[in-house]
Amino acid sequence: MTYDPLQAWRLAWQTQEMMTAAALTIGLRTFAMGEAMVGLRPHDHRENQRMVSEKMKAAAESAKASALLWPQLMAASPTAAWGLWLRLGSGGLRPYHSRTTANVARLMSKRLR
């Protein structure tokens, strides 16, 4: 396995994108809860359940992706380990990234309706 310098940049971009999407998701969900509390919209119980279940699923997928790469990382040479560390980070972040970006798209489309 060779080290790809752009791999670190891609991981940083993926992290930034996920953090931005998470902040937007939190804001949209909090706003919707506030509207429901004052009676401006019906309370969305499915969205609240989704918040919890998706975090648990993402955590399990992240742990699995990390666990699968861990033996390779331990057996790798120091140079190859750099690339594996980045793959470990990217693989662990991927479930959270996919969910947060999907949430923003879904919640924004609900908001614009």
Main sheet attributes: strand count, strand direction, barrel closure: none
Range of helix content: over 70%
Low-confidence stretches: none
Overall mean pLDDT: 90
Number of domains: 1
Strand content: under 5%
Rg, please?
A: 18 Å
Helix/strand structural class: mainly alpha
Number of helices: 3
Shape: elongated
Q: Please give the number of β-strands.
A: 0
Q: How widely separated are the two ends?
A: 48 Å
Order of helices and strands: HHH
Model description:
By secondary structure, the chain is mostly helical. The chain has one domain (5-112). Helices cover 88% and strands 0% of the residues. It has three helices and no strands. The longest helix has 35 residues, at 78-112. The protein is elongated. The mean pLDDT is 90.
Please give a quick description of this structure.
With 113 residues, the chain is an all-alpha fold. The protein has helices at 5-37, 45-75, 78-112.
Quick tags:
3 helices, mainly alpha, 113 residues, single chain
